[in-house]
Each structure stands twice: as C-alpha cells, then as structure tokens.
Amino acid sequence: MDNKELKRIANQVRKNIVTGVHAAKSGHPGGSLSAADIFTYLYFEEMHVDPKNPRDPDRDRFVLSKGHCAPGYYGALAEKGFFPREDMKTLRHTGSYLQGHPNMNDVPGVDMSTGSLGQGISTAVGMALAGKLKKKDYRVYTLLGDGEIEEGQVWEAAMFAGNHELDNLVVIVDNNNLQIDGPITEVNSPYPIDRKFEAFNFHVINVADGNDFDQLRAAFKEAREIKGRPTAIIAKTVKGKGVSFMENQVGWHGKAPNDEEYAVAMADLEKIDEEVNA
Amino acid sequence: MADVKKIATRESYGNALVELGKEHDDLIVLDADLAGATKTGIFKKAFPDRHIDCGIAEADMMGIAAGLSTCGFVPFASSFAMFAAGRAFEQVRNTIGYPHLNVKIGATHAGISVGEDGASHQCNEDIALMRTIPGMTIIVPSDDIEAKAAVKAAYAFEGPVYMRFGRLAVPVINDRPDYRFEIGKGILLREGSDLTIIATGLEVNSALEAAEKLAADGISAEVINIHTIKPLDEELVIRSASKTGKVVTVEEHNIIGGLGGAVAEVLSEKCPTKVHRIGVNDRFGESGPAVELLHKYGLDGEGVYNNIKAWLQ
After folding, report:
1. Which one of B26, B29, B64, B102 makes the best mutation probe of the A interface by having the most chain A beta carbons within 10 Å?
2. B1 pLDDT exceeds 60?
3. Any CB–CB contact under 8 A between B96 and chain A?
4. Residue of chain B whose alpha carbon sits nearest to that of A130
5. Are the folds of B6-171 and B187-312 the same?
6. Of B63, B101, B239, B297, whose CB has the highest number of CB atoms within 10 Å?
7. pTM for the whole thing?
8. Is the Cβ–Cβ distance between B197 and B223 less than 8 Å?
9. Domain boundaries along the sequence of chain B
C-alpha cells in the first residue's frame, strides 16, 4: 500500500476518533491521534489479520497496552472491516460494545482487554512466549504510552522479554512527550527511553517522526530482521496530531471536543484529505 | 494421631500438576522464584520446557499467564497467596478476571500456618480479595486428596480459578471410596442436629475434631466441608441451617470477607440464622511454629471446640 493510501486511511481513523470522542462527550483524543499513523501502519501494512476470521490462531497479535487510546484502535479496526465505522458514534455509551477501554470479548479484532496501564505489555510477552513454545511464526505487537512506561510492570515484562530473546515481539512507545499531569520530563521522566530498553536486551529503533509512513515502514522492516532479541520502536509523535487546536496540548489528553470544536476538528481533517488527494 | 498420614496441600498441587502434565500438552506452569516452596519445582523436574520462572515479578507473571491463555495454553500461575492475591490483585482483576481468561492461580502458603515467616507472609485476606472479582472460582482444599482433585477439576473447568494451598502438612481426611469432588458442591461430612459447623481448608479437620468433642458433651454437630468458597453451595448451607438453626464457620482467614462472610451473606438474605464466625479475628499474624500458632489463635480442634462451647452458653 502506498503512502497516499495509508495517509488517506489514517485521516479517516482520525475522523473516527474525533467522531467517537465527540459523541461520547468523553475519552482520550490526544494519544489516539498521535498513534493514528501507527495503528494504520500496523493494520494495513504490517500485521496479518483477517476481519472475517478474527480469532485465527495463526494471526499476528496486537495489544493496546495504553488502553485509553481505544478510540484510535477502534478507528483502525473499523476501517479494516472488523465492525461498521458508524458504530464509533456509540463509543462509551451505555450498552455499546465499544467500551471506554477495549474488551476482547466484545470487540471483534481486539486480542486483549486493557486499560490499566503497564499490564498489556505482559500479556503481549505471554503471547510471544506462546508463539515460541508452539513454534508458530506469528508476531506480537504492543503499543505503550511514554507516560505508561513509568509503571514498574513494564520493566518486569521488558526484563522477561529480553532474557527470553522474544524476537517475535515488537514494543512500540508512542513518545508524544505528554501525560495527564504535564510533559513527561516534568512529571517523572522516563528518558532515556532507548537506553533503558537497550539495557533490557532489546534492539532499539528510534523513529524521529512516528507520524511519517516512510519512517514507520523502515522501522518495522528493520524489526522483522532482528533475531534473538525483541525490538522496541521509540516513535516520536505529536499528541493530538491532525487537529490544529489539539496538537501538543496536554489539555486534550482526556477531553472531548464540544460541538464547535468538533466542527473545527473535522474541517482540519477535511483539509488534510484535500492535501492527500491533491 | 501419630499414625495419620499428613501431607501439605502445596505438595499435592505440585504432584497433581505432574499427573495432569503427562496427559495434557497444553498445561503450562508459571512461578515467581518460589518453585521450591510452591512445589511447582516437582513439575519443573518432570517438564522443564513447560515450567516458566518469571522471577520475582508476580504482576508480570499474571499478565504472561493471561497472554498464554489466549494462545492455547492452560496456565497455572503460582506464588504465595500474599503475592498471588495481594501483590497481583489488580492484574488478576483486570487482566484475568475482567476478560474471564482461562488462567488457574495456585496460591500456596495461605493463612497463619505459614508459621515462622510471620505476618508479612501470612495471607489472611486472599479469599476476601478474590471473592470480589466477578466470575472468579475459589477453591480451598482440606487435604491431599481434595487438593489433587481440585487441581484436576480446575484444569477441566473453563475460566479463572483461584486455588488456596497450605504450607503445613495436614492429615488426610478424605480417604474413602465414596469421596467425590465437584466444583461448587459442599460435602456433608457428619450429620448433626444441634448446630452446623461449616469449615474450609485445614480447618475442616479442626471442625471434625471439635464435633467429636462436642458429641462427648451431648451436643450433636453437623459438619460441612465447603471446599469451593465461590460459587458457594447455598443449597447445602441453607438446608443445614434450616435444620440445626445455628451455624458456625471456621477458616484460617480473616473473619471478614472469607467463608464466614460468604455464609453470613447467604443466610442473612435467604434463611436468617444465628451465625458465629471463627477465624483470624481481624488482626495480623506473627512468627512461630505453625501448629503452635493454630493453637494460639484457637484454630486447632481444641480451640474450635472451646470457642463453640463458649458461644453456645
């Protein structure tokens, strides 16, 4: 798939995020938007998954360890065909299968229930270990927030993955530099992220622009070639990417746009569509 | 009592895992640097490739078990009750309980009978913690025979199961031809008419001893073994309570939230009955030989007998 098509899909994922969070009147747009290109790349280029057979035992797995970015995850799963895009409007509504944080038993395509930070990566490690024990060649991907890696369990999981040489595991850190209480450097800095993962026996790939498909493509391609070690992709991204007034604004971590803000956000995204299609 | 066969239920856990491991390739055992103590080391010896030592990282172990369970394995995650139910509570709640994954938790060293290690390692809260997780099955076996049956039943059962085992060697009390284990079904061990003693784990034996002493005083005590705390065998509890009109619960656990709590909840709503809870009285434990501690805390047969006698007066 060429970059133009990926950009077109990523922009639709962003529209899904804004639509869902606006309809829910709550949720987490900032980190969903920063990771929209990663979600898109994973589901449209990198991973072998089939919406018609979401529980295929040989499929690649994805764990959204930063479960609050469910709007971005759902947005990509909908575009991939796991469920109708229109259902994004039911996000966080009573009775909807699109819960505030992903539930694997309700949402087609979701491989693990997540939401409590630091726990998803351990389950991804378990899936990767299972692949090794069963001599399967599926790969396992997990996306973490840069604030999330302040959780100690992340490093328990990293230690295990490195020691067990799980080269079928790719840990992606959405490094948008902002967490709820402020810049990660001011709250409790996890930097240097790359050297920490290196110390845990990971092959580390720093991606200067995690919203750029050429750079994501190069990183995931490199990860596939690494043997004997898991890979950590540290992707520098822009929180709120694509929506002018949300970009790099910590206040949009977990807040929904009102009707006027929704209109501006959708207009911003329409403009991106025009640029992509030009 | 010297000729009575004694074995710790943690030992039964390790032995049952080996028996199951021979039959089932999908069984996998995890531990957190306690394989010697939890007795999963027995399994490790037999099946080194299916024993995963996660190191001192219980939270991570629960997550790894969850991930394995979604990929065709039946994981048995093992640690001391303090760490399995305590340290990793939220991992068990959110990553195993909420998605209702097929993970079995083997928690050893429960209660004050841990002995010399003292209060930091004597978990008297695990049943209460696990009971609050929707869909969690909780089994507290009373002896070797029941523990092995419980492990096998847990493997065959689809969904999360918390099993509570002890460190102390306890008498084999279920060695009889008609013994049958079924998850959620209590066992009437002794019929009586004056009161019902409902016990779990190693306290089942104390309850039987107490009932014997009560009989000598002319008091007829019914004894029920509740090995499955959740789902509780409400029918059996209510039937016996209706018959005797007095219920005593006995457990090696805080009297808050465990067997006593579960029985009191059911009876107060469905069959109001006088209930007396015997257990660890909302306090921390301490160091000492396990048998001495059980005596000091009134949880041996004599202590349970004295407690019931005092309550009846």
Report:
1. B64
2. no
3. no
4. B68
5. yes
6. B63
7. 0.97
8. yes
9. 6-171, 187-312
